[in-house]
């Protein structure tokens, strides 16, 4: 299990986006948002669904993924508290580009696309923040695809993924550490590998002392060693 693709406790993953909007805009969006609680594993929307709403993550985590025709899944991002899901599609009017699913029990603030766009028409000063957010999301997606496409092996992909997650973890005398709470299957969906490959590779990393587990915490004792492994 893993939780530091951005870890709820150690990584902002874009931070509280509402806090970065002009106060009048944030207040109006909050007044419009209809809060709904969802259990784990609920699909909020699917690829190619009409973009009828945007979703503000109030608590929990939302897994954003793309699916192939043969059923394979690629996870692009885990959206955490403060992020707005479905933003690009709401602005463009195009169908949702990803599938959004609750990774844990989550609470979302739902705003209809028409109301969201009406707020922006009244407050065009908000577009700068939204453009910055979309740019951040695009950069994260590019980073994910770069890891997937330019690494030649599953161990290299996994090493790069763990190093990326560790960037916003905690630093201790034992090394860089972060909370780990995704399943091996979900980790595989980040790097295009099977659950068995992820399990085997993590075991290899542990035997080589590239990583260590203490309960649900993963520690990288020597990031330079893992970086060398990632680029071998």
What is this structure, in a nutshell?
The protein has 232 residues and is an alpha+beta fold. 41% of the residues lie in helices and 24% in strands.
Question: What does the main sheet amount to?
Answer: 4 strands, antiparallel
Strand order of the largest sheet: 1-8-3-6
Can you give the helix content as a percent range? 40-55%
- Tell the overall outline: elongated
In CATH terms, the superfamily of the largest domain is Jelly Rolls
CATH class of the largest domain: Mainly Beta
Taken as a percent bin, the fraction of beta residues is: 15-25%
Radius of gyration from CA coordinates: 18 Å
Describe the structure.
A hairpin with a 2-residue loop joins strand 11 and strand 12. The chain is built from nine helices and twelve strands. It is an alpha+beta fold and 232 residues long. The radius of gyration is 18 Å and the shape is elongated. Helices cover 41% and strands 24% of the residues. It has a four-stranded antiparallel beta sheet with strand order 1-8-3-6. Strands 2-7-4-5 form a four-stranded antiparallel beta sheet. The protein folds into two domains: 17-148, Sandwich (Jelly Rolls); 151-230, Winged helix-like DNA-binding domain superfamily/Winged helix DNA-binding domain (Arc Repressor Mutant, subunit A, Orthogonal Bundle), CATH 1.10.10.10. Helix 2 runs antiparallel to helix 4, helix 6 (154-166) packs antiparallel against helix 9 and helix 7 (184-191) packs across helix 8.
């Amino acid at each position: 299990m893993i939780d530091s693709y951005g870890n709820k406790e150690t990584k902002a993953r874009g931070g509280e986006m509402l806090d970065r909007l002009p106060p009048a805009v944030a207040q109006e969006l909050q007044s419009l948002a209809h809060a709904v609680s969802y259990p784990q594993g609920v699909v909020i929307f699917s690829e190619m669904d009409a973009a009828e709403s945007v979703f503000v993550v109030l608590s929990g985590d939302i897994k954003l993924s793309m699916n192939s025709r043969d059923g394979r899944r690629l996870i692009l991002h885990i959206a955490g508290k403060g992020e707005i899901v479905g933003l690009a599609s709401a602005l463009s009017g195009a169908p949702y580009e990803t599938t959004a699913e609750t990774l844990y029990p989550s609470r979302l603030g739902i705003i209809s696309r028409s109301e969201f766009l009406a707020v922006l028409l009244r407050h065009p000063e908000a577009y700068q923040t939204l453009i910055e957010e979309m740019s951040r999301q695009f950069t994260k997606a590019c980073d994910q695809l770069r890891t997937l496409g330019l690494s030649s092996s599953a161990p290299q992909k996994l090493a790069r993924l763990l190093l990326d997650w560790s960037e916003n973890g905690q630093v201790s005398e034992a090394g860089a550490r972060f909370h780990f709470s995704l399943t091996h299957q979900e980790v595989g969906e980040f790097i295009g590998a099977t659950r068995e490959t992820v399990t085997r590779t993590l075991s290899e990393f542990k035997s080589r002392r590239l990583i260590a587990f203490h309960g649900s915490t993963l520690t990288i004792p020597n990031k330079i060693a893992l970086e060398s492994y990632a680029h071998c």
